[in-house]
Amino acid sequence: MRISRRSLIASALLAGLASSLAPAQAEDYPTKPLRIIVGFAAGGAPDALARIVAEKLNQRWGQPVTVENRVGAQGNTALAAVAKAEPDGYTLALMPVGNAAVNPALFASLPYDPVKDFAPITQLASVENVLVVSAQSPIKSAQDLIAQGRAKTASLTYASPGAGSMAHLAAELLARSAGFEMTHVPYRGVAPALTDVMRGDVTLIVAQLSTAKPLIDSGQLRALGIASRERSKVMPELPTIAEGTGIAGFEAVSWYALMAPAKTPDAVIGKLHGAITEALKVPEVVAAMAAQGAQPIGNSPAELAAVIAADTERWTKVIKEAGIQAN
């Protein structure tokens, strides 16, 4: 087929126009309302973190930033919607560690790929987890727990709010790292799991510190260690699990990141990253996140991608070795 000189010139002009418009559009961004899609119900930590960020973006840019809750399939429904959204920076996703680094190994198939379908912006915050037993338990420390597990003097059990939850994976990682076995007791939610741990019906649980701390303070739970690399600023007297057990580098942290659809322009990602990381330094934002038991992070897109890769490797290994399957 013969292509005329006029058609070639028109095509070149259109290509040039498109390339000249892209930077201009990125420079003007945002020019319309944004939305952050959250795969969990309103009122929980993920929803609260998204709303904190949304308010600051609205204040900075003067554009409405709404939080849309799309509950279903452990957050997978919401992320599938964002993966298919226009990559223009106006539809974003709050992505927890579970959806980024756990679900790909937990589910036989997913309606999204956390690496191929998304462009990282930044980790918003991490949420500390704590290893706890009943206040009446004979287990006084993490080292006591490991000693009992290895000696097989008692049948050790651990609670979680469901298969593949961070509570489930963290306890499995601890047992496998220390060389002993525990029996998983899944519940439909954190509240009933904590209740049975407090009563001594189940040996332990790894719970979010913000949830467990009131029960620790009231004398109903005993804290054995923080599941982070560093001690908690909230409970600085409590050793990390690594310190208490000698398991070097032990870590089981919950975190939340902000992601955009893949192919979102780098300039738009840069604007979002700059605005969000600045907001995370504001004292009132730090305080609001602390109320949710969260600590701001604000790393780079490349650093977030590295975190996802490392956590995917860690939790995939645990899931495969333990034979964990989604509920």
Summarize the structure in words.
The protein is an alpha/beta fold. It folds into 2 domains: 32-126 and 254-322, 3-Layer(aba) Sandwich (D-Maltodextrin-Binding Protein, domain 2), CATH 3.40.190; 129-245, D-Maltodextrin-Binding Protein, domain 2 (3-Layer(aba) Sandwich). Helices cover 46% and strands 19% of the residues. It has 12 helices and 11 strands. The chain has helices spanning 5-28, 45-61, 76-83, 97-106, 142-151, 166-178, 190-199, 209-217, 241-245, 266-279, 283-290, 301-322; strands at 34-38, 65-69, 91-96, 118-127, 129-134, 157-160, 183-186, 204-208, 221-226, 254-261, 294-296. Strands 2-1-3-10-4-11 form a 6-stranded mixed β-sheet, sandwiched between helices. It has a 5-stranded mixed β-sheet with strand order 7-6-8-5-9. β6, α6 (166-178) and β7 (183-186) form a beta-alpha-beta unit. α4 packs parallel to α12 (301-322) and α6 packs across α12. The chain starts with a helix and ends in a 5-residue tail after the last helix.
